[in-house]
Amino acid sequence: MNDIFTGKLVRLSAFDPEEMSKAFTRWNLNSEYGRLLNSSAHRMQSAKSTAKWMEKEAEEMSPAGYYFSIRTLAEDKLIGELGLDVVNWPGRDAFVGLGIGETEYWSKGYGTDVMNVLLRFAFAEINLRRVTLTVFEYNPRAIRSYEKAGFRHEGHLRNYLNREGRRWNEIYMGILREEWMELNNHAPSAVLGA
Amino acid sequence: MRELFRGKLVRITAEEPETYAKSEVHWQRDSEFVRLADSDPVQLSSEKKIREWAEKRFEKGPQPDRYSFTVRTLDEDKLIGFFGLWINLIHNEAWVGIGIGEREFWGKGYGTDMMKLCLQYVFTELCLERVSLGLHEYNARALRSYEKCGFRLEGRTRRDILREGRRTDTLWMGILREEWLQMQNGENQ
Fold it and tell me: With 70 as the cut, is the pLDDT of residue B66 above it?
């Protein structure tokens, strides 16, 4: 089988609103996770209300948004969430958001593996020209992981965040199709034998 | 900057659902027009139904894979037709549909002017790689117009359409980004 959704440690799987909303609610109890993922004030949401908007998103199946859950290959355990939003079709650019909610899987290469799989999907399947993300200055673990996946620093919004009495930058990172092709020896996918 | 919405004979407009419904209800009575534009049987819809359908599209808001335009003449500001794009976002290409409902504007270069505006929008604004279209073999006027715009005949589905006891072909045409760019060096720059 040739499955572009499977990496070395994880695989992307379909987004099941019922399962996902429960996991999501539990992960959100961890305010550190919320602060690494979002710039808004951390808040809690019931599993029920979360399931509601997730169901709506899942139903639409828009070509502009792709949402996945992240599972380990070893135990088939749901450990995180992933979304790719195409924000600019003429420019063929998308924003990626990635979160590993299960903290025992932090710093072990899972996030990097997810990003590698996602980039293959973005460039070899959706035919994008670039992928963009933002990350917060206080999240060096994520920055390091994105660098490993091939993202470059493109700029930052100075003092964008106010967390615990300090102001932090929001960092913009991006990767171009050509850069990704080079990293992958110009063989985007085994599907076409290219 | 290029003028995206203004050609030599026509300009692209956005119409209120009421205005559009008034024109469309009148265009659909011209069976020859419908048979040139479509392969579905000629059907009649009420002005109210057409308006509601247009309003629904308005409410849904802009979709990244669907663009539709109406067209008015430059000299009389008369609403004469429409064109629309159905985009395959993943493969970065689109199908175009075009029609002039007011028959006194047939055969006078209006359609060609509309299609040129459409292609300019497709290649300079949407940045697509190709555009496809289909037409009935019996629509020689359209074929010539599309050729003038740079479309090439790419194939045909033989005898798939039955009109008044006679089977006719559907023709498929396409234009690539490189071909369009090359044409721009000659004209329309």
Answer: yes
Please report residues of A whose CB lies closer than 8 A to that of B90. 63, 125-127
Give all strands of the β-sheet with A78-88 in edge-to-edge order: A10-13, A65-72, A78-88, A93-100, A130-136, A166-176, A152-163
User: Could B91 and A89 be called an inter-chain contact, meaning their C-beta atoms sit closer than 8 Å?
Assistant: no
Whether residues B90 and A91 touch (CB distance < 8 A) is answered with no
Distance from CA of B168 to the nearest CA of A (A): 36
**What total number of domains does chain A contain?**
1
- Between CA A88 and CA A63 the distance in angstroms is 12
Contact B64 A86 (CB under 8 A): yes
Q: How far is B11 from chain A (nearest CA, A)?
A: 23
Q: Considering only residues A61 and B22, tell me which one the structure prediction assigns the higher pLDDT.
A: B22
**pTM to 2 decimal places:** 0.87
Question: Smallest CA–CA separation between B127 and chain A, in Å?
Answer: 5
> pLDDT tier at B169 (50, 70, 90 boundaries)?
very high
CB A87 within 8 A of CB A174: no
Distance CA A26, CA A44 (A): 10
Please give the residue range of the domain that contains residue A179: 10-183
In a domain, A134, yes or no: yes
Domain assignment present for A142: yes
Rounded distance, CA A47 to CA A25, Å? Answer: 6
C-alpha gyration radius of chain B? 17
Residue A55 lies in a domain: yes
In a domain, B3, yes or no: no
Question: Are the beta carbons of B89 and A63 separated by less than 8 Å?
Answer: yes
Report yes or no on A102 lying in a domain.
yes
Is A89 within 8 Å of B90 when comparing Cβ atoms? no
Residue B53's nearest CA partner among B23, B94, B7, B17 is: B17
* CATH number, position A55: 3.40.630.30
Q: Cα separation of B189 and B187, whole Å?
A: 5
Number of domains in chain B: 1
Q: Which ipTM was obtained for this model?
A: 0.79
Whether the pLDDT of residue B81 is over 50: the answer is yes
Who's near B71: CB < 8 A, 6+ residues apart? B10, B11, B12, B13, B79, B80, B81, B82, B83, B100, B110, B114
Report chain A residues whose CB lies below 8 A from the CB of B65.
63
The CATH number that applies at residue B39 is 3.40.630.30
